[in-house]
Design goal:
Helix content: over 70%
Shape: globular
Mean pLDDT: 84
Number of helices: 12
Low-confidence stretches: none
Structural class: mainly alpha
Strand content: under 5%
Order of helices and strands: HHHHHHHHHHHH
Radius of gyration: 19 Å
Largest sheet: none
Number of strands: 0
Length: about 300
């Protein structure tokens, strides 16, 4: 059990690194070369094909017809609403607004886990999530308030902000509703069917923008960015998340979101894009302490 928990946390750390790299690697893809809904269609279509291919050679597990509604629900919240609202919202609002709004996800998952799964909300978990939230907000907002970053809140958009919040809520619901399926099926089986149903849902929204893409005009680095988003940020990240949920609770999976800005900052520092300062160090300490407390076994359910 201890080894399983260690592997689950390593999987979640890997997902955090994938998402952190995504902010750098995939920058510039949308909307100049691919529209947001079209990009989602390519993501889901490519990942679905990979899930079917891998599942074909690793398992012959089938799903019960009575579970179709559960898979469709997970596809709606975890693929269609989650991805469409995030990309279209990010296309309208500022990255700053989106980052701040996304910090609400672990809080929403903690509450949803308590209501839907009956997961116990311990004081330790509340403190951990609160520290993580505080560290993330310090890292995102304080540099702007102190003038270290030339970013204005006016760069946001009420509709875009609303879409980002709906994305945060929908992903939180997905993490909670997919957990029971993990007790019955293999991770690859679950995510394969979640994405299959999700592909049907996003197809009507992304079909038009997908046809408008002029592949001959897309630079090589942008093409590799698209491949990275499909393979690492979608295929591997979603699989590793459901793999981790075989062992840990949805609230622990969600609290790792707070590590993403830390990893992004570390990558920026290593590439010489940013300088180290007391704000980053303080925020990182708060976040790592929060994640440790929220995920510490024994006192925390999952």
């Amino acid at each position: 059990m201890k080894n399983a928990r260690i592997l689950a946390h390593l999987a979640l750390l890997t997902v955090g690194i994938f998402y952190a790299l995504n902010y750098i690697v995939a920058k510039g893809v949308m909307p100049d070369y691919v529209g947001p809904s079209g990009f989602i269609l390519f993501r889901v279509m490519g990942a679905t094909a990979l899930f079917w291919l891998v599942h074909r050679f690793t398992s012959n597990e089938k799903i019960d017809r009575k579970d179709y509604p559960k898979f469709i629900q997970c596809a709606l919240f975890g693929v269609a609403m989650n991805q469409l609202f995030f990309f279209n919202g990010l296309n309208l609002t500022s990255p700053l607004n989106a980052a701040v709004i996304m910090t609400t996800n672990p809080v929403l998952v903690l509450l949803a886990s308590a209501v839907i799964l009956g997961e116990r909300i311990t004081r330790q978990k509340v403190v951990g999530v609160s520290l993580g939230l505080g560290g993330a907000l310090v890292l995102i907002i304080l540099p702007v308030v102190l003038g270290h970053q030339d970013v204005e809140w006016k760069g946001g958009n009420p509709i875009g902000d609303g879409m980002i919040f709906i994305n945060a809520v929908s992903y939180g619901v997905y993490l909670v509703t997919v957990k029971p399926l993990m007790a019955k099926y293999e991770p690859m089986t679950v995510i394969k069917w979640v994405f299959t149903f999700g592909l049907v849902m996003v197809f009507p929204f992304g079909y038009g923008q997908a046809l408008e893409v002029n592949w001959s005009e897309i630079p090589t680095d942008i093409l590799w960015g698209i491949v990275y988003v499909i393979v690492c940020v979608t295929f591997l990240a979603y699989y590793l998340n459901v793999y981790a949920m075989k062992t840990v609770s949805p609230s622990i999976v969600s609290v790792y979101i707070y590590l993403q800005p830390v990893f992004t900052g570390a990558l920026s520092l290593s590439l010489g894009m940013e300088d180290l300062n007391w704000i980053k160090v303080t925020a990182a300490l708060l976040i790592f302490t929060g994640v440790y407390l929220a995920s510490k076994p024994g006192k925390v359910t999952g």
